[in-house]
Write a structure and sequence with these properties.
Layout (H helix, E strand, L loop, with lengths): L14 H16 L5 E14 L13 E11 L10 E11 L4 E16 L2 E9 L18 H6 L9 E9 L5 E7 L15 E3 L4 E3 L6 E3 L9 E10 L2 E11 L5 E4 L4 E3 L2 E13 L2 E12 L14 E12 L2 E15 L2 H6 L11 E13 L4 E10 L4 E11 L4 E12 L14 E9 L1
Parallel strand pairs: 10-14
Antiparallel strand pairs: 1-2, 1-23, 2-3, 3-4, 4-5, 5-6, 6-7, 7-11, 8-9, 11-12, 12-15, 13-14, 15-16, 16-17, 17-18, 18-19, 19-20, 20-21, 21-22, 22-23
Length: 434
């Protein structure tokens, strides 16, 4: 294993991406098609803290300016099949960290090597599953620092260097993803957002001194995700398989030296989505097989579990501009008796079944120039919540201003949202698109 922290992996170029970049530049010169598309935006964002914050800066946790360019080029690869080259890059000045950086969110080539096969090679955003901000079989990396500080929801998803292939058939279709290099979630580690430190048993705001060891870059450690799906009479059914690692450091190697790593994981899942009672219903399940603690007796490693998700979305009959969506998820920890018997003294006890409900209300007003949104996470077992109200105003076709908030509340310090209670914030974003 390599002794590397998550931050060292932030939007860095992997050797595979550099090779792909050379390939794409070559294609620009050797192909005859001149079709292309260029657009982007400039955005300023800032926040004001509303809670008793213990992080590095007590008045805000977001203050930045970013400029994004998205370039799409359509080379003629053969007489029959065309390709699509995509590059999405950003120049970001982060006032909180007082640093300027270049971030690459897309750098890939989309091709169709055969009539029933599509491929996308390079840096890309990966996602699938049926949940709305709840993830069961979507094991691709997330950025929770962005999500909780007020950046646009699109930044919840981190890019991956991957090869993705689709195979289409009348009987069923396949979606295969190969990720050679492990990418962890960008999780809360202190400094910008305070968090509950289980080793110390308290809320901490300083940057974590923990060391997070990531899996070695070997063929054996490459992550593989597979989805088989089919649509029958407006209903889409899917089966999922994932082989890789937890995206959070769920294994303690040495508590005294605060040394953590990412245990091996396999996930087997299924989903069904389609029209029900004038709306869209979805059901999804995933069995999380913790390969480094198959019996649940190792208290330093995450137990296996099963996640169940149920959801329903529809427009309200009395107001066609108002849409409501509800979800309910249950996470059932397996081998719970072993977990309780081996729990270290002083460590907070987790529930066998964690319940989490969500509510989304969306309304478009004033000829769709105003979009009002409310998203609520609430856990009846943890007795905590996260409220995300926002209002966006489209002043012109190119200018949009968004005002929103992140409100956390909980009765216990160690739960997901209770631990974030000091991070309440009010944010404002202004974006000019071109």
């Amino acid at each position: 294993m390599n002794n590397r922290t998550d931050n060292q992996n932030r939007y860095s170029y992997a050797p595979a991406s550099l090779l792909l970049l050379a390939l794409l530049i070559t294609l620009l010169f050797v192909t005859t098609s001149q079709a292309s598309d260029l657009h982007g935006f400039v955005e300023g964002a800032g926040s004001v803290k509303l809670g008793d914050e213990r992080a590095e800066k007590n008045s805000y946790n977001l203050g930045e300016t970013r400029a994004q360019l998205k370039y799409t080029y359509f080379p003629s690869l053969t007489e029959v099949y065309d390709g699509e080259l995509s590059l999405k890059g950003e120049l970001l000045y982060d006032g909180y960290k007082e640093e300027l950086s270049i971030e690459i969110r897309d750098l890939n080539l989309f091709i169709s090597p055969a009539p029933s096969v599509d491929m996308k090679i390079g840096r890309q955003i990966l996602t699938w599953g049926t949940g709305d901000l709840l993830f069961v079989n979507d094991l691709f990396p997330k950025d929770y620092v962005s999500f909780f500080t007020g950046r646009a929801t699109e930044y919840l998803k981190l890019p991956s260097d991957a090869v993705r292939a689709w195979y289409y058939h009348d009987a069923f279709s396949l979606d295969l993803v190969l990720i050679p290099r492990f990418q962890a979630n960008r999780s809360i580690r202190g400094k910008r957002l305070s968090f509950y430190d289980g080793l110390r048993g308290s809320i901490e705001g300083t940057e974590s001194t923990r060391t997070f060891i990531t899996p070695k870059r070997t063929i054996k450690n490459a992550e593989v995700a597979l989805r088989a799906y089919k649509t029958v009479k407006s209903y889409e059914a899917a089966l999922y398989l994932f082989k890789g690692f937890y995206k959070e450091p769920r294994m303690v190697l040495d508590s005294a030296n605060e040394l953590f790593t990412y245990p091996r994981l396999r996930v087997y899942g299924a989903s069904l989505r389609g029209p029900v009672a004038g709306g869209i219903a979805n059901v999804e399940v995933g069995y999380y097989d913790s390969r480094d603690d198959t019996g649940g007796a190792d208290s330093s490693t995450e137990n296996s579990s099963v996640k169940y998700l149920f959801g329903f979305t529809r427009d309200l009959a009395f107001r066609d501009d108002l849409k409501v969506g509800v979800q309910y998820m249950v996470e059932n920890m397996l081998d719970y008796g072993q977990y309780k018997a081996n729990l270290p003294a002083g460590e907070a006890l987790r529930d066998k079944n964690r319940h989490l409900a969500t509510l989304r209300l969306t309304s478009l007003l004033s000829a769709q120039t105003i979009d009002a949104n409310l998203f609520l996470f609430y856990s009846p077992t943890d007795r905590d919540l996260h409220l995300r109200p926002s209002v966006g105003y489209k002043a012109t076709d190119t200018v949009k201003v968004t005002l929103g908030a992140n409100i956390f509340s909980g009765s216990k310090e160690h739960t997901q949202f209770g631990s974030l209670e000091g991070n309440n914030n009010l944010y404002l974003r202004a974006r000019y698109s071109f």
